[in-house]
User: Which sequence fits this backbone?
């Protein structure tokens, strides 16, 4: 099976199939070989599946040199080594520390952006749809305005574009308000 | 100066490296001069990363929901298979080890038995060469018994003669091993008798046997 194409065409179904096929093997392996507790092993495996997904969507992974299981196990192995080191670096209580660390590791201007990203993560989580989806589709999946219009069922491209501007402004306003609240709390 | 929708588009293009050379020069001039633009660039860069984090978190949540519906991790994965293989290998090693020890012991027993047989053969040959055709002096006991009362013979001397008689019988029948054993035993007893009784006939007998 061509997993890369499968993920691109039907991502949730592909991820579910991958997860169901390899969860037990990988979690068992992490428990036995890396001495992880079952919950930590599961989170590592879940992170590995998400990293695989991200590599496919971002275009980093265009072709698999090994089979998908070996690729997933390879990610798991690396994530185990990073797990504790990264957990120490997370400044506040993260819901998914491994994902947070993975995203932060990918940033060049880390120091300048870290605080801004953390505030924006909070604001984006609270933003809700359709703004959240539009921002995800445009900024993460790099979909065009026309594709987003079609996917979301909007009237035309301009409607989507205007909605995107409004969403960005709402998000930035929420970040500013969050900063004001945070500064106020610190005083 | 307020950020317009057009500014947002320009910043998107800038962040994605899509501005033309001329537009890039103009934009970088604004970036140096306008704090609002600089802040917006930071915000838009952060937005791209947040969008990614948001999608990946959604996927994590989705996987966790599936996981909750899948039940516990079954102990039938490759880890266990590896364990099973490792255990089987260990059992095989244990079995081989046990068999190896048994085989070594068996070989040692066979070797020792063969060695014993060989030694026995060599010893028998030696005794055969030593006693075959050799005439030992006749036992004096009959003469001693008929000449005097058995009460005159010490129990030690009587025992020595009896054993010597046994040696003569065995050697005559070709049972060299038993004959040799009785002969050596009787010689030992005769020497004790000689030492205790100073009997010259015993001394003569001992010398005759040794010759």
Assistant:
């Amino acid at each position: 099976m061509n997993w890369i194409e499968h993920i691109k065409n039907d991502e949730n179904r592909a991820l579910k199939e991958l997860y169901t096929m390899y969860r037990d093997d990988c979690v068992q392996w992490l428990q036995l070989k890396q001495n992880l507790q079952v919950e930590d092993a599961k989170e590592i495996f879940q992170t590995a599946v998400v990293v695989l997904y991200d590599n496919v969507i971002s275009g980093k992974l265009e072709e698999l040199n090994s089979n998908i299981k070996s690729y997933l196990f390879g990610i798991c192995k690396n994530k185990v080594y990073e797990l504790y080191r990264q957990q120490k670096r997370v400044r506040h209580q993260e819901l998914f520390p491994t994902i947070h660390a993975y995203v932060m590791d990918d940033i060049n201007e880390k120091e300048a952006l870290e605080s801004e990203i953390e505030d924006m993560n909070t604001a984006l989580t609270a933003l809700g749809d359709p703004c959240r989806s539009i921002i995800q589709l445009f900024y993460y999946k790099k979909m065009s305005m026309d594709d987003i219009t079609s996917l979301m069922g909007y009237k035309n491209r301009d409607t989507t574009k205007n909605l995107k501007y409004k969403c960005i402004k709402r998000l930035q306003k929420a970040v500013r308000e969050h900063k004001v609240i945070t500064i106020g709390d610190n005083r | 100066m307020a950020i317009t929708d057009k500014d947002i588009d320009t910043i998107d293009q800038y962040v994605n490296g899509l501005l033309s050379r001329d537009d890039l020069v103009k934009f970088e001039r604004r970036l140096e001069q306008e704090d609002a633009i600089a802040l917006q660039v930071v915000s838009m860069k952060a937005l791209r990363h947040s969008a990614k984090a948001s999608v990946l978190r959604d996927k994590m949540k989705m996987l966790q929901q599936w996981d909750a519906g899948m039940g516990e991790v079954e102990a039938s994965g490759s880890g266990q298979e590896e364990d099973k293989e490792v255990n089987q290998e260990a059992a095989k090693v244990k079995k081989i080890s046990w068999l190896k020890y048994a085989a070594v012991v068996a070989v040692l027993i066979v070797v020792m038995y063969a060695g014993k047989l060989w030694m026995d053969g060599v010893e028998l040959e030696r005794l055969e060469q030593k006693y075959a055709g050799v005439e030992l002096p006749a036992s004096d006991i009959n003469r001693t018994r008929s000449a005097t009362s058995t009460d005159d013979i010490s129990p030690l001397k009587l025992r020595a003669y009896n054993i010597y008689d046994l040696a003569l019988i065995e050697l005559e029948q070709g049972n060299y091993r038993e004959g040799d054993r009785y002969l050596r035993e009787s010689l030992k007893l005769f020497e004790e008798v000689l030492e205790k009784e100073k009997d010259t006939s015993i001394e003569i007998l001992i010398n005759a046997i040794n010759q």
Observations:
- Residues 3-105 of chain A form a domain with the Rna Polymerase Sigma Factor; Chain: A fold (CATH 1.10.1740).
- Chain A has nine helices and no strands.
- Chain A touches chain B through 57 residues (CB under 8 Å).
- Residues 67 and 94 of chain A are 32 Å apart (CA to CA).
